[in-house]
Specification:
It comes from Clonorchis sinensis (Chinese liver fluke). It is built from 11 helices and 6 strands.
Length: about 210
């Protein structure tokens, strides 16, 4: 985020320790998330993919043969968490970023013995996996469910108080998003999918809704 456009003047922030100059930086890492001036998470996704590919190479060098059981442990414990860390917040929405992250899972599924020659969709079925974009949506819905269960939904969404529309009784108003970045916010992108859920899912017990996530 820039201040003053292309101005050459320095900016100062006044805090408890006195005035401090605001230094310019093109990227900043905070809580494990890389942030860029344009509020895009592409850099974070690129670095996550790089780490994930490095781990895949390490796994290939360590194991001469990887069974399905080995894959479930290694991929689930070491690789996928890198790709899904802070997913509700860190979402780009750009096609190139979605493809980049999915490439990691494509490469990972090829390591399993006997699956390399199969197409990606078949490998997913055999390994009981889903595309990462699907898991992202699933995670968004589970978080939305948790917010309603804990009574925090009004802090994130504009909830329909009249409850006059068809479907379940926890509908969310979809506000206008005039920019691409706004449309990728969690509070915006999850609304349509959440409103289309059946009532049996929205009011299901918590332990069933979040199972295996």
């Amino acid at each position: 985020m820039s201040f003053g456009g292309d101005s050459a003047n320095s900016f100062v922030m006044h805090g408890e320790k006195g005035p401090e100059a605001i230094t310019r930086t093109d990227a900043k890492k905070d809580l494990g998330i890389w942030l860029s001036p344009n509020v895009s998470f592409s850099l974070r996704l690129e670095k996550s993919a790089q780490k994930a590919f490095a781990l895949l190479r390490m796994i290939r060098c360590t194991f001469s043969r990887i069974t399905r059981t080995d894959f479930e442990i290694l991929y689930g414990a070491y690789v996928r968490p890198l790709l899904e860390y802070a997913n509700p917040v860190v979402y780009s929405g750009r096609t190139k970023d979605v493809i980049l992250i999915e490439r990691v899972q494509r490469a990972a599924t090829k390591m399993v013995a006997g699956l390399k020659s199969m197409d990606y969709e078949t490998r997913l079925v055999v390994l009981d996996l889903f595309p990462l974009e699907y898991r992202r949506l699933r995670g968004d819905l589970i978080l939305t469910y948790a917010l309603f269960e804990q009574g925090l939904a009004n802090r994130v969404f504009t909830v329909d108080p009249a409850n006059t529309r068809r479907g379940h009784g926890e509908k969310i108003f979809k506000l206008r998003g005039h920019t691409f970045i706004r449309q990728t916010f969690f509070s915006f992108r999850v609304v349509a999918a959440w409103n289309n859920l059946p009532q049996t899912v929205v009011h299901a017990p918590l332990e069933l809704s979040s199972k295996h996530y």
